[in-house]
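TICKET: design request
STATUS: open
ATTACHED STRUCTURE:
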């Protein structure tokens, strides 16, 4: 039996549903209201900004000046560029306590009244000149410049750390120092070391960065540079390549030269203007002191000039020790000998030798180490100067071992010609193996000789190799005839391969034996026919050191190419040259090579 719901229950559910619908509508309207209010606030902000811009546009132009000092409660001494300095009144809405020296202010165009204090805005290009991190260079990283370090400490470091000494003596602190000398002698490195030890803000600027396109831009950057230095005092301004803006003034119709001169005049003005007690020191560096303007070099602006000459032998040795300190050096490397090979080299070039030696080492097989990396680094850095130096009767020890002496002449003293090619009966690999098998069965032990011909190139002994194609290298020589003497046979083989084309007899000087091999298969790919159970030596190969006369003339077969490979290259690339050729550096380490 159905029961009717209580009377009025249907009306209650209807109104509850209507209330929920109205609540959703109210929430949606409130959300729209908040969105419209946010848009209104944004538009009001834009309107205020536009009104302010309109008001500024309607105002007369203002001069921008820099406060020198307040005179009293109503007047201030202001410097305006380029007009000069003026004593101006202060507007009613400006608090005199907010007007501080060096702050930027706006002056009305018609009355020169100070009516606004401007933010100290610095050009982003100038801001980027400040080095945020203290340089990590130290005096210990500067080699061979003990005298220069002492002088720059007296001029820069001492006034910053102990200004009371100058007050007690009654003298003004030095403002600037000029570092001059050839490129790569350590000027920038020493400036960074000074900034490190004084814990000053280091501002580095190149003179070329101050040469701007528009008139007055370079002068403005110089002013802002010194303003930034005062704000971050104590600070050191290092101006590299100062000759780009500090050259002597000349009469020129070029607008670019006039702008450079304006920039230099502003620099002179700043050097005269800032006080020594502000802990601002200026270090300038140049390679051309002879073209600098005398006004820039006078005492009071540049208080000391420090020369950076090319390092001598002891200085080069110190620089080598510093830059090779973290290198994994092979025993027996004589750094003094390396320093002697670089007369006239700058500190940067000496450092480059260490870098080049490391790169030569990194480019080779892991674990391969050879003392010649430094010598080759010297040669790659200055091969021409090194050859000139090595043209005297100077011995270079290779491998650090003692032994005999071998003369080697520069490669340029030899003349290479060509002659008819030397072809085998059948150059194919199967045919060659068949001939080797027949000789092995007929003769038993093969006898062969090869000559090691040395030349001098780039300060290192090189070995002459014969290249056939692109991958096959060999020493000149070959198999001996039955019963043939080894020395006579080697001379015969050398004449056949490298003898003069005109038929003139070549005088080959065969020296000591530098290697003997008694092995059945020291080159397994060439002897696949030897059974693995054979252990008795079946072949004898002997290497001789062959000397060449100066101005030697010989020819190479057309199908061969004569190449000169440095000893360290043979040492580090055994897979490319084979075990015999790559073993030559060890076999020759008992010789001292004298370059004629």
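STATUS: resolved
RESOLUTION: sequence designed for all positions
ATTACHED SEQUENCE:
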């Amino acid at each position: 039996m159905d029961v009717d719901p209580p009377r009025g229950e249907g009306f209650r559910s209807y109104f509850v549903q209507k209330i929920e619908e109205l609540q959703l509508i109210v929430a949606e309207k409130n959300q729209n209201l908040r969105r419209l209010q946010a848009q209104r606030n944004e538009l009001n902000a834009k309107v205020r900004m536009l009104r302010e811009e309109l008001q500024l546009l309607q105002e007369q132009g203002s001069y921008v000046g820099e406060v020198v000092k307040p005179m009293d409660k109503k007047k201030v001494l202001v410097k305006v560029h380029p007009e000069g300095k003026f004593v101006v009144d202060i507007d009613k809405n400006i608090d005199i306590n907010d007007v501080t020296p060096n702050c930027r202010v706006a002056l009305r165009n018609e009355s020169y009244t100070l009516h606004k204090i401007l933010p100290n805005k610095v050009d982003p290009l100038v801001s980027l000149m400040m080095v945020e991190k203290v340089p990590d260079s130290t005096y210990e990283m500067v080699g061979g410049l003990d005298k220069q370090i002492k002088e720059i400490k007296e001029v820069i470091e001492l006034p910053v750390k102990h200004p009371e000494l100058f007050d007690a003596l009654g003298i003004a602190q030095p403002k600037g120092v000029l570092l001059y000398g050839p490129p790569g002698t350590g000027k920038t490195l020493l400036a960074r070391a000074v900034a490190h030890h004084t814990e000053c803000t280091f501002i580095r600027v190149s003179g070329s960065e101050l040469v701007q396109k528009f008139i007055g831009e370079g002068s403005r950057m110089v002013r802002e540079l010194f303003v930034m230095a005062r704000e971050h005092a104590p600070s050191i301004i290092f101006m590299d390549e100062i000759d780009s803006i500090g050259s002597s003034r000349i009469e020129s119709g070029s607008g670019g030269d006039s702008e450079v001169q304006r920039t230099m005049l502003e620099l002179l003005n700043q050097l005269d203007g800032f006080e020594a007690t502000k802990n601002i020191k200026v270090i300038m560096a140049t390679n051309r002191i002879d073209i600098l303007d005398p006004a820039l070099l006078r005492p009071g602006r540049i208080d000391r000039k420090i020369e950076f000459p090319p390092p001598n032998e002891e200085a080069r040795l110190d620089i080598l020790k510093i830059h090779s300190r973290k290198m994994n050096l092979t025993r027996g490397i004589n750094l003094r000998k390396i320093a002697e090979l670089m007369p006239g080299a700058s500190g940067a070039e000496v450092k480059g030798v260490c870098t080049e030696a490391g790169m030569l080492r990194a480019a080779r097989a892991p674990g391969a180490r050879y003392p010649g990396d430094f010598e080759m680094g010297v040669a790659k850095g200055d091969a021409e100067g090194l050859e000139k130096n090595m043209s005297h009767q100077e011995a270079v020890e290779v491998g650090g071992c003692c032994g005999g002496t071998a003369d080697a002449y520069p490669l340029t003293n030899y003349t290479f010609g060509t002659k008819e090619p030397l072809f085998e009966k059948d150059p194919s690999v199967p045919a060659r193996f068949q001939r080797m098998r027949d000789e092995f069965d007929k003769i038993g032990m093969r006898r062969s000789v090869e000559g090691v011909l040395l030349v001098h190139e780039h300060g290192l002994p090189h070995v002459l190799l014969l290249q056939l194609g692109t991958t096959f290298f060999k020493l000149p020589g070959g198999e001996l005839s039955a019963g043939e003497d080894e020395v006579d046979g080697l001379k015969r083989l050398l004449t056949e391969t490298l003898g003069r084309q005109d038929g003139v007899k070549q005088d080959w000087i065969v020296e000591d034996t530098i290697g003997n091999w008694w092995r059945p298969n020291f080159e397994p790919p060439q002897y696949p026919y030897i059974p693995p159970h054979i252990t008795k030596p079946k072949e004898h190969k002997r290497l001789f050191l062959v000397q060449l006369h100066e101005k030697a003339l010989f020819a190479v077969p057309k199908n061969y190419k004569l190449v000169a490979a440095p000893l360290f290259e043979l040492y580090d690339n055994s897979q490319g040259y084979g075990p015999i050729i790559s073993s030559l550096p060890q076999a020759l380490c008992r010789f001292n090579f004298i370059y004629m």
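CLOSING REMARK: The first helix runs from residue 9 to 58. Confidence is low (pLDDT under 50) at residues 382-404, 521-536.
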